[in-house]
Design brief:
This protein has 45 residues and is mainly α. It is 87% helix and 0% strand.
């Protein structure tokens, strides 16, 4: 289980490393979303 969590953290860290500008744009769009929309995004694989 710890290995899976570690892998998720590594994969999530790749986007800011490779393309910080795209990561900022994506994050700013997520901040503007409503709570229900964020929940749906979090539920979708």
């Amino acid at each position: 289980m710890l290995l899976a969590i570690g892998l998720v953290l590594v994969i999530e860290g790749i986007l800011p490393l490779v393309s910080p500008q795209a990561w900022k744009q994506t994050f700013s769009r997520m901040v503007e979303m409503k709570d229900g929309q964020l929940r749906f995004v979090g539920l979708a694989p």
